[in-house]
Structure formats: structure tokens, C-alpha cells
Amino acid sequence: MVEAIRLDRVSLWRRTQEEFSYDLKRTLLTFLEGKYRQPAKKLILDNIDLVIKPGEKIGIIGPNGSGKSTLLKLICGILKPTSGSVKVKGNIAPLIELGAGFDSELSVLDNIIFYGVMLGFSRQEMRKRSDLILKFAELEDYALAPVKSLSSGMTARLGFAIATDVQPDILILDEVLSVGDESFKNKCKQRMEEFWQDHITILLVSHTMDLIGKSCDKVIWLEKGKIQLIGQADEVIDSYLNSVTNKV
Ligand SMILES: Nc1ncnc2c1ncn2[C@@H]1O[C@H](COP(=O)(O)OP(=O)(O)OP(=O)(O)O)[C@@H](O)[C@H]1O
């Protein structure tokens, strides 16, 4: 069987307190006082087996902190699993943390080229594509300006324009369907609709059940890092909503 994405027994542990990175002084003091303890580790994804076929449109739902974004980051290769294996066939356009990979000192044009190279395209090809990317992002006048001079909405527009220009095999979306101002949002929606018609594999994380129900064939419900249920969109959404109302 052809597979676009395959996860075998994937688990991920992360440190729950990241004190060392944000409060170095306090960490050193507690260390000197002999009170330092290793930050606790938490199991974020627990033994996930998953097969996604090319062209499937998959929704991922579940409560806050259940591991949805983490699962996407593993599939994109931003995070590595502690155990198990993640296999992906084809190039991925991750529309998560738009613009997080930009170098703010470099120009918009240089960032377009670097970002594309990071996604596996050649410099030459990215140079050719840059005009269309700048046009879509409506940033033609900023080509030579450093990214730090853009507003946050403009930066997100640039990230969206690059990631969706490269015509990916797999598109990863973490509730970033609305980027920028109203007119740009409409452009994003249109581009997304084209992707949906296409044979691209799509993974969409959202808390908006209507959106998931309308746009996905299959849904994964995550609960505390485990797959609680996977199946036809309507059935999984109903079970999830029932479980939430029963808790209240
Ligand atoms: N950088 C990090 N370091 C350590 N733990 C993290 C980090 N980011 C997230 N976590 C933890 O991983 C778990 C899953 O987080 P994740 O962001 O994947 O959840 P989610 O299902 O996407 O939540 P939400 O619906 O709130 O976006 C949470 O317990 C969270 O505290």
C-alpha cells in the first residue's frame, strides 16, 4: 500500500519545566544550594501508530494540551520522537509557526530563497519563484528590506506565500487559515480551496468542528497524547462532542 505518512509506535517525552532556559540565575542559585532537581519529564505522545494515504484530508481534534501541535511538529521533522519511527513521503509545507524560521536581519528576498532551500528547493528555482511569492504576499516594495522592518501580519503573509507557493505533496495546517487582514484572508482561503481540490495530503488541527467536519474525510481524536478514536469525520466529531458534554 502506498503511504504518505507512517508513524510506528511513536512516543515523545519532554521536560515540563524549562527553568534552565528562562531563569538561569535562579537555576544556578538552587544548584549552588544543592537544591537543584532535574526538571520532570512528561509523556506528550504515547505510542502512536498511524498510517495516512496520499490525498487524504485528515482533521486532528482534542482538548488543549492533548498533543495535536506536537504530532504535527513530529511529522514536519521540527521535533524528533523519543522512540518509534516517523516516515514521510514527499515534500511537506508546514503552515505552523509561520515565519518562525526567518532571519530578521536578512532581506525579504534572501529569506524567500533560504526558506525555499530549507524546504528542499534549489536557489535558482527559488529566485525564479520569488516574483510570484512577493506578488502574492503584496510585498513587492519590500523585497530588499530586512524582515525585521515588516509588521507581524506582513511577516505571516510572507510565510504563507512561500509555504503555499512550493506546491507541496503534504500540507500541514495548525489553525492558521486566517492570516493578515480581511483582503489577504480571502486570498488565503482561495488558495486553500485549490489545495483541497487537489491530490495533496492535508493534516488540519482545529478546535472548529464545523471546519473539520466540512473539510476532512477522516478525523483523529487525541486525548492525553493517545489516539482515542480515528475514523470517519462525523462519527469521531460526534463522539468527541458527546464526551465533552458528558464531562460538564
Ligand atoms: N516547548 C515545550 N516544552 C515542554 N512541553 C511542551 C512544550 N510545548 C508543549 N508542551 C506540552 O506538550 C503537551 C501537548 O502540547 P500541544 O501544544 O501539542 O497540545 P495541543 O493539543 O496542540 O493543545 P492546544 O489545543 O492548546 O493547541 C502539553 O502538555 C504541553 O504542556
UniProtKB/TrEMBL annotation:
One of its GO terms (molecular function) is ATP hydrolysis activity. Gene3D superfamilies: P-loop containing nucleotide triphosphate hydrolases. Keywords: ATP-binding, Hydrolase, Nucleotide-binding, Transport. Signal peptide: none annotated. CDD domains: ABC_KpsT_Wzt. Its EC number is 3.6.3.40. It comes from the Bacteria. This is Teichoic-acid-transporting ATPase. It comes from Stanieria cyanosphaera (strain ATCC 29371 / PCC 7437). The lineage of its organism: Bacteria, Bacillati, Cyanobacteriota, Cyanophyceae, Pleurocapsales.
